[in-house]
Specification:
This protein has a five-stranded parallel β-sheet with strand order 2-3-1-4-8, with helices on both faces. The protein has a domain of about 150 residues: 3-Layer(aba) Sandwich (Rossmann fold). Helix 2 crosses helix 3 and helix 6 crosses helix 7. It starts with a strand and ends with a helix. It is globular and about 45 Å long. With about 220 residues, it is α/β, with parallel strands linked by helices. Strand 5 and strand 6 form a beta hairpin. The structure holds adenosine-5'-diphosphate (2 copies). The site of one adenosine-5'-diphosphate has 19 residues, from helix 1, strand 6 and helix 9.
């Protein structure tokens, strides 16, 4: 049996992780585990977890580690993740990365690759401010850089496109500050483990996909 593949798509808010994860789905054939999507699903379903997370998300802060770690490790323990997963938005703190390493090693697994999609802050602000998501499937569009065929409507399922509450300029500034303070130390953490691959995220969506595919094939 081939070894399970746990790959992390790592990068600042709006660096294109979700967009690229959707494009890598066929190549990887692994479930896409995105912590932000899991929180938003919980919020839509008005679960206790969703309501607890909302206050932090609205302020642009990280949801506390204990809640986040339990949610993602639970997701990874489901049968569809037995051969691996494409993680997106998790881990975001050293404590989360350590918990993930421990959970995987308890199953005899490890992180295969961390694909670090780097994008300058000023470009991230442009990307966030034009981001629109499908209410039904979560697909990300951009009002200038990745337009749907019909404005306001998802190409795949006709769902309504909406702007996230936390994609407002003040919250975005806070999220970038949180990224640099709490999440960016993971770059050295994973570089130290020899699993980090640098990807230039400041290119067209197609060019980033090509670089990611090359990096994945290189393992
Ligand atoms: P983006 O796509 O802009 O990077 P996400 O959808 O990944 O944003 O996350 C949205 C919000 O959900 C974050 O600002 C944070 O409040 C919360 N969140 C998501 N993932 C994590 C995590 N791993 N740890 C703590 N909070 C998280
Ligand atoms: P993340 O999941 O990292 O938060 P998204 O995939 O949601 O990021 O992308 C953020 C926004 O930027 C979306 O509106 C998306 O359409 C757009 N986008 C993604 N990649 C690129 C790119 N390479 N060039 C221009 N816009 C992009």
């Amino acid at each position: 049996m081939p070894a399970a593949k746990y790959i992390i798509l790592f990068g600042p808010p709006a660096s294109g992780k979700g967009t690229q994860a959707a494009r890598l789905r066929e190549l990887l054939n692994l479930p896409h585990v995105a912590s932000g999507d899991l929180f938003r699903e919980n919020l839509q379903g008005e679960t206790k977890l969703g309501l607890e997370a909302k206050a932090y998300m609205d302020r642009g802060e990280l949801v506390p580690d204990d809640i986040t770690i339990a949610m993602v490790i639970d997701r990874l323990s489901r049968p569809d993740c037995a051969d691996g997963a494409l993680l997106d938005g998790f881990p975001r703190t050293i404590a989360q990365a350590v918990a993930l390493d421990q959970a995987l090693s308890a199953q005899g697994h490890r992180i295969s690759q961390v694909l670090y999609v780097a994008v300058p802050d000023n470009v991230l602000v442009e990307r966030v401010s034009g981001r629109r998501l499908c209410r039904t499937c979560g697909e990300a569009y951009h009002i200038l850089f990745n337009q749907p065929k019909v404005p306001g409507v998802c190409d795949h399922d006709g769902g309504e496109l909406y702007q996230r509450d936390d994609d407002q300029p003040e919250t975005v500034r806070k999220r970038l500050q949180v990224y640099w303070e709490q999440t960016s130390p993971l770059i050295d953490y994973y570089r130290g483990q020899g699993v980090l691959v640098d990807i230039d995220g400041n290119q067209s969506i197609d060019a980033v996909t090509m670089d990611l595919e090359k990096a994945i094939a290189g393992t």
